[in-house]
Amino acid sequence: MAPLLLAPRPAAAFWLLGFAPADTLPEGRFAAIAGTGGQYSSVGSPQRNSFTPFLPHAGLRYGFADGWDVGYRLTQVALPYSGVGPSLGGEIDVKRRLTAPGSTWQAAIVLGAAYSYLDIAGASKSAYSPGIDLVVSRTLTPKATLISELRYVYTAIPSATGGAKGNYVHAAGVDLGARFSLTHTVSVTPEVGVFDFAGGLRGRTANGVAAQYGAVLGFGF
After folding, report:
1. How far, in Å, CA of 57 to CA of 82, rounded?
2. At the N or C end, where does the chain have fewer CB atoms within 10 A?
């Protein structure tokens, strides 16, 4: 296992798609999402390609004030090495709406942080991952909303050999999607995105790109 970790490998899959419009939930309301998708990535020089066809996703949000909501979702931390075994972690974020409620165009800033444990050469290591998103959405019809997102995520494994300086990834990209209301409380949101990342593990670097696609069902209550 150790020799694999010292060389660039195809990317392990991780969600960078947001699956949410810029508008925040009304105060006191909850929403949940659940779905799946996949990722294709190309990493290193020479390039190595990988495809993950099944990548589950689930999350819960709560509107705690006018123009503010908070969310929790299950996630895998972003590291571009298949030699690092990903494990399911948790991410908490806060979204602040920047535009007037009811506006056709909406914009929001999302600040979040994730934490997880990873398996490296049979040893469990902790990883943390702060990030920031700019979300813009436009209402097309009463039942359809266009969504676009710019996202940056930094992930580090401070407990691995070399610390956070030698075990990290920077990931940035853009996605495009749409939310379609099926009923007053149920919706479906498909999304696609392209992301660029630069990472290192034990002092070795592996840069690359990844494309993701997915869809989730949303439930309001």
Report:
1. 19
2. C
- Distance, in Å, from the CA atom of 62 to the CA atom of 70, rounded to the nearest integer, reads 5
126, with CB counted inside 10 A (0-12, 13-18, 19+), is middle
Structural domains in the chain plus CATH codes: 2-202 (2.40.160)
Reported pTM: 0.86
Omega within 30 of 0 (cis) for the link into 46: yes
Q: Taking Cα atoms as reference points, which of 220, 216, 212 lies closest to residue 189?
A: 216
Distances (CA, A) of 72 to 9, 18, 33, 75, 179: 30, 12, 11, 9, 20
Percent of the chain with pLDDT over 70: 83
Dihedral (C-alpha) 118, 155, 45, 2: value to the nearest 10 degrees?
Answer: -30
Question: Using CA atoms, how far apart are residues 72 and 57, in angstroms rounded to an integer?
Answer: 11
Most confidently predicted of 22-26, 39-43, 201-205: 22-26
* Structure tokens, 111: 């600040």
Give the tokens for residue 194: 């392209």
Cα separation, 215 vs 193, whole angstroms: 12
Number of H helices, E strands in the chain: 2, 11
* Two structure tokens written together for 102: 């009811």
